[in-house]
Amino acid sequence: MANCKSCHGDPGKGNSVALNPPPPDPGGEKMQRNSDGELLFKIREGHGAMPSFKNMLPISSIWNVVSYFRSFNKQYTQQVSPKPAKTSEGKTKIDLNWLKEKRQLTALLTNENNKVTKPVAGEEIQLFAVRYFGNLPVDKIKVTDKEGKAIFNFPEDIPGDSLGKIRLIARLADESKYGEIKTDTMLKIGMSTWRPPLNAQRAMWNIVQKAPLWLLISYITIVVSIWGFIFYVLYLLRVIYVIGKGFRL
């Protein structure tokens, strides 16, 4: 609903957007001919006119999308690995700490098990700034050191809201061991940016008071012309009635 339907349409309905080439129906034969790995790769990396979603969706969510597509194929049989992926015990989390003087963001990866908290070393962490149309990667993928820390250099020119706040998402690049681990927070570390609301300027899709002037003038002119013509016809009918009444007398 959020990322696929706008182009691919409803699965099994064949109502995709008229593009060239047309996006395949998720429930159709063309889409279902792909293997699970092919679908995962194309969604993550992009394919043809379709953009990459690896910065917007964690791999677990992409697998959920693939599974949803497969639910429209009654002949599909999922191939399950005989050995499930190794998962970590306890609670793993990412904490973010802003170093203002160095303009660096420290991500601390820890695992708590039996009330004992230990740093997690050697894991790749990705950092994103949330944008309107996707997530913007901040710096490169970093690997946690022996203290469980990964340091990201934060650019000075990333715009925030009117107060300079930026919504940040940090997550593990590999979810096979710990599952989907991420943190989502707002920090006042960006450039203060004021953007007028989308309905502030005149536009076709805006409310009546903010419609383009040429459209308002055209509309009023058409309405006045139609009603003027109607009243003119009524006036002529009145004239014909009076003339006819005079002949009868």
How does this model look, in words?
The protein has 249 residues and is an alpha+beta fold. The protein contains five helices and nine strands. It has helices at 5-8, 29-32, 36-45, 59-70, 213-248, and strands at 91-99, 104-113, 116-119, 124-131, 134-137, 142-143, 149-153, 165-172, 182-188. Strands 4, 5, 6, 8 and 9 form a five-stranded antiparallel sheet that branches. Strands 1, 2, 3 and 7 form a four-stranded antiparallel sheet that branches.
Helices, by number, come to 5
* Biggest sheet overview: 5 strands, antiparallel
Low-confidence regions: none
Count of beta strands: 9
Spell out the helices and strands N to C.
Answer: HHHHEEEEEEEEEH
Give the N-terminus to C-terminus distance in angstroms.
Answer: 75 Å
What structural class results from the helix and strand content? alpha+beta
Strand content: 15-25%
Task: Calculate the mean pLDDT score and round it.
Answer: 86
Helix proportion:
25-40%
**Molecular shape:** elongated
Rg: 30 Å
Compile the SSE list and pairings:
Layout: H1 5-8, H2 29-32, H3 36-45, H4 59-70, E1 91-99, E2 104-113, E3 116-119, E4 124-131, E5 134-137, E6 142-143, E7 149-153, E8 165-172, E9 182-188, H5 213-248
Antiparallel strand pairs: 1-2, 2-3, 2-7, 4-5, 4-6, 4-8, 8-9
Helix pairs in contact: 3-4
